[in-house]
Each structure stands twice: as C-alpha cells, then as structure tokens.
Design brief:
Helix content is 33%, strand content 26%. The protein has 339 residues and is an alpha/beta fold. The chain folds into two domains: 9-126 and 293-307, Rossmann fold; 133-290, Dihydrodipicolinate Reductase, domain 2. The longest helix is centred in the C-terminal third of the chain and has 20 residues, at 311-330. The structure holds nicotinamide-adenine-dinucleotide.
C-alpha cells in the first residue's frame, strides 16, 4: 500500500515571550500540531503549559529537540541565541522558524543558512509583516505592474519614548546586536523591500546614535536609540530609513511609502496614489486578508515550498544592518559585498 501523505506538522516553540504568539498561531492553524514548549523561565513555562494544555514542557530546549515526533520549532529567544539554538535544532533534524532579526550579524545568518541547506531542512524567517493583508495587497498590485518601476521608498518606525526593557538583553549590544535599527528597522526595511519586489541592496550610508544616554541608569545600554540610513539597490532604486526608541517627535509612528513611475502607495492605512484616464486617483483597497505564517510554514514543510520569508531574505537583511552600523562607524558609504 502506498504511504499516506502527511497532512500535519508537529511543532515546538522555544522561548515564551514573543513565542507565545507563535504558540497561539500553531494552535489555530489546521495543518499544525503544537506538541511541546521550552523556556528557562519556569513561571512562563508552567503558565503556558497549563493555559494551553501542552503535554511536553521543558526548561532545557535540548529535551524538546530530542522528541522523535517533533518536526519543527520556532526559535523566539533573545537575538544572541538565534544562531546557536537554530543550528542545534537543524542538526537535530528539525525545520526552524526563527524570529527577527535572523542573528547578530550576516556571518551568523550565513552559517545558519548553510546548516539548513546541508541538512535539507527549511529555515524560515519570522518577518511577520510580509504576511499582512495590506502588504500582500500592495505586492499583488506591484507584481501586476500597476506601480511601473519603483525607484524610491521611505520607511520608518519612530517612538517618542519606547525603549523595550532598558537594561535587559535588548539594550546590550553583545546580546542584541544593536538598538532600534536591529529591533524595529528590520521590520520596516524588510516589508518595504518586499513591496518593492526585493531589489538587491548594494550600498548603504547610515548613522546610529545614542541621544538619550540616561537610559543606562537601568543597566547596560550600549546600543543606539536612533538610526537613519539611505540604501541603494542594484536596479537604481533607493530607500530612506528612520528608526528610534526615543526621539523628541510627536508620538509613535510606523510608516512605509513606495514610489513608482505609474503609482505610489502609503501605509497604514493603505492608499494607492495613481492616475486613471488622465485623472489623479486614490485607491483604498477593501479586502485585506493576511496569511497565517504558521500555516504557511507547515505548508512549506509538507509540500517542499520556499517560504515567503526565506533564510536568504534573513541574510540579506543582516548584510544591510551590518553595513548601516559600519557606515555609521566609518562616516562614509559602505558597499555591500556579494560573492
Ligand atoms: N516579530 C515580532 O513582531 C517580534 C516582536 C517581539 C519580539 N520579537 C523577537 O522575538 C525574540 C524574543 O523577544 P521577546 O520580546 O520575546 O524577549 P523576552 O526576553 O520577553 O523572551 C525571551 C524568552 O526566552 C527565554 N530564554 C532565554 N534564554 C533561554 C534558553 N537558553 N532556553 C530557553 N528559553 C530561554 C526567556 O526566559 C524568555 O521567556 C527576539 O529576537 C525579538 O526580536 C519579534
């Protein structure tokens, strides 16, 4: 008798801060079974175990990886653990969805990508914004050629006062890799590049500064609290970026705008600016259903598909971030190297 095709994937989640969102995503998705969790924090572990009725709950993630029936894990740990834990999981034969940023730098990301390749497993990035309804909608218009050639974009995520866990791993460069650039910039740069059709970044000019040193009273705070950058792409397009955890600005704001020869767009809310029959027209698309990243990850595993947010996308992002930090240090434009 031919073997019956597997229709569900067994998942585990490592790290139960943001990981709780992953856990709930797997519980809701029809092609996912959540079978285990791991966190060194016993309170978080027991709370999730009891609240969601999860059978396998471990303080040591190696015990989760040792479950034979486990197919894949989410790695939702502090940034410095993304590489070692993802590599452990891949070497244990498990597919991995890793939180953003992929790692502390591009070299780490590349090592993770190569491990996944060697093991023949999927390494997906949790670039959750790509899966949003409004972003998917713009992508549809872009792919249909409705924007013409996209030659410019600007994006940002600024906060008046919004430092995540000052004094925790977030503000410790060795543990986080950086401040709002690697924390928030990674989201807005990635989603904007995605809407532009993923052009190849070739050079960057950037500046990362600490304008609010008083946050160090909470503990180590050796990262920037503001960064700006100008990214050049191989196709001639450019992107301006601005991110902050603290800035004397009106209030928190996340924005993304793309400009093409036939149309431009802004979000959120989503509006497309174009010209129809010689008349300037604003389009406000109505149906904005997103995609479940968790269902998509399982679908990629079951049907051997490349994820919408792949390991290569993660490495590309890390190359941009590395170049912005390097440009800030060197006070000049930095060329991004591609083999
Ligand atoms: N995609 C998004 O929108 C989004 C939002 C928030 C955070 N994140 C990312 O998620 C990751 C985690 O961030 P967070 O806000 O949940 O941080 P957090 O500090 O709240 O949670 C991290 C968890 O990992 C656990 N942990 C630490 N070391 C461990 C180990 N060795 N083994 C098992 N568990 C361990 C901690 O006990 C904690 O519960 C970061 O990479 C962050 O950038 C992404």
């Amino acid at each position: 008798m031919p073997k019956k095709k597997k229709t569900t994937v067994n998942f585990g989640v490592i790290g139960l801060g943001m990981g709780r969102y992953h856990l709930e995503g797997y519980l809701k998705a029809p092609n996912c079974n959540l079978i285990g969790i791991a966190d060194i924090d016993e309170n978080r572990l027991n709370d999730c175990k009891n609240r969601y009725g999860i059978e396998n709950a471990f303080k040591d993630y190696h015990d989760l990886l040792a479950l034979k029936e486990l197919d894949a894990v989410s790695v939702a740990l502090p940034n410095y653990l993304h590489k070692p834990v993802s590599i452990d999981a891949l070497n244990a034969g498990k597919h991995v969805m890793v939180e953003k940023p992929m790692a502390l730098n591009a070299a780490e990301g590349q090592e993770m990508l190569e491990t996944a390749k060697k093991q023949g497993l999927i390494l997906m990035l949790h670039f959750n914004n790509r899966y949003r309804g409004d972003i998917q909608m713009i992508k549809k218009f872009v792919d249909a050629g409705e924007f013409g050639d996209i030659y410019y974009a600007k994006t940002g995520w600024v906060r008046r006062r919004g430092v995540p866990g000052a004094g925790s791993w977030f503000s410790n460069k060795k543990l986080s890799g950086g401040g709002p650039l690697i924390d928030l910039g990674v989201h807005v740069i990635d989603m904007t590049m995605y809407m532009m059709g993923c052009p190849k970044p070739v050079a960057v000019s950037g500046c990362a500064v600490q304008a609010f040193p008083e946050y160090s009273k909470y503990g180590t705070f050796d990262v920037e609290d503001f960064a700006s950058a100008y990214i050049r792409f191989e196709n001639g397009a450019t992107m301006a970026v601005e991110v902050s955890w603290a800035q004397n600005c009106p209030s928190e704001k996340q924005f993304s705008e793309i400009y093409g020869t036939k149309a431009g767009a802004s979000l959120s809310p989503l509006v497309i600016w174009t010209e129809q029959n010689g008349i300037l027209t604003d389009i406000e698309p109505k149906s904005l259903r997103g995609i479940s990243q968790f269902e998509h990850f399982a679908d990629c595993i079951l049907n051997k598909k490349t994820p919408i947010s792949s390991a290569q996308d993660g490495v590309t992002m890390m190359k941009i971030l590395d170049a912005i930090y390097a440009s800030s240090e060197l006070k000049r434009e930095v060329v991004i190297k591609w083999e």
